[in-house]
Amino acid sequence: MQALMLLLWTGALLGSGSCQNNAGSPEGSPDHETTAGSVEEEDPFFKVPVNKLAAAVSNFGYDLYRVKSSSSPAANVLLSPLSVATALSALSLGAEQRTESSIHRALYYDLITNPDIHGTYKELLASVTAPQKNLKTASRIVFEKKLRIKSSFVAPLEKSYGTRPRVLTGNSRTDLQEINNWVQAQTKGKIARSTRDLPSEISILLLGVAYFKGQWVTKFDPKKTSLQDFHLDEERTVRVPMMSDPKAVLRYGLDSDLNCKIAQLPLTGSMSIIFFLPLRATQNLTMIEESLTSEFIHDIDRELKTVQAVLAVPKLKLSFEGEVSKSLQDMKLQSLFDSPDFSKITGKSIKLTQVEHRAGFEWNEDGAGTTPSTELQPARLTFPLDYHLNQPFIFVLRDTDTGALLFIGKILDPRGT
Prior knowledge:
By secondary structure, the chain is an alpha+beta fold. It is globular. The protein has helices spanning about 30-35, 40, 50-70, 80-90, 95-105, 115-130, 150-160, 170-185, 285-290, 295-305, 325-340; strands spanning about 5-10, 15, 20, 75-80, 135-145, 165, 205-215, 215-220, 225-230, 235-255, 260-265, 270-280, 305-315, 315-325, 350-365, 365-370, 385-390, 395-400, 405-410. The longest helix is centred in the first third of the chain and has 23 residues, at about 50-70. The strands form three sheets. Strands 1, 2, 3, 4, 9, 10, 11, 12, 13, 17, 18 and 19 form a twelve-stranded mixed β-sheet that branches. The protein has a five-stranded mixed β-sheet with strand order 6-5-7-15-14. It has a two-stranded parallel sheet with strand order 8-16. It folds into two domains: about 5-40 and about 215-315 and about 365-410, Alpha-1-antitrypsin, domain 1 (Roll); about 50-215 and about 320-360, Antithrombin, subunit I, domain 2 (Antithrombin, Chain I, domain 2, 2-Layer Sandwich), CATH 3.30.497. Keywords: Glycoprotein, Secreted, Signal. GO terms for molecular function: serine-type endopeptidase inhibitor activity.
């Protein structure tokens, strides 16, 4: 494991710190021992049960993102991994030990000594979906038609996850309409209805949906938004609406090992977005992606320095609708699709057929105030600092209260997915 130095220069060094990087782990994913081991013992933040659980499911989320990104190297990626993690965690309530262990290992529960995982998950969901967060997220388990479900599964599912399973009618049009209606209700109509047909033979369908529209703590002036160049690579550019603030107050660091500039902008509701901007437009993003863990992001949050900068951010409105089944199979969850034991759910042999994810994400100039918070006192710099998101970048939407990963994106072209 290599040490990362987050450096901020003003001609001389203003501040530095070290973070742990897991780049180089097998298959681009950090192993469990390095992901959630020693850091938790040292940092009081991770001693809080809900924060420790948030770190675990977020590490699952970074794994899912890595697999999805590697399978789509030339495309934008947008995921809200928490909704998928929630569906899997809820499904584990119906799994016998062998299958439950497979799910829990993928969610990093095997590193948590918490006798009440599902009760703590209820607390996590309540925190991240509080009204001021502006996050809509929900998960659902859908079963094959006429399946008899044990009440001993339904009761804890409803208690901890606030959801009831759905049993299909067998009429594909009716079932798709019902699922669409549920998605619309959970996201207040913000996610478009799907026209994709349901698989003809569903045994278990997991559905994770999420929508977020961010509100900056300090809003952008719409009059300063203009069409500017976004560099897809060294040769190709596109014109996109770019929001600008010549005197933005943000938190900043330069990671010399990953060759990227990191910036954090606060959002209302105790949330923030962390941007990873490579030094070159053609730079491979893989090394940055392999470094992402809950603990790495938490260390970044502690190390960044408050500065004033000339900031440019593209307006963004992205959506994703599709399966993540293959990605989960690649994350050592193949057994859920082949020969799982869900006998706590029903007496019939059932298995996971499909995991569907729908997500919507956007930000524009909207914000709470016109001036930076007086709590943020920027460091004095001896040179002007520019932070222009005008080339491919990665962003992480994080809940500050719990540390939970809520959205993650790879933006190669901000015009859309």
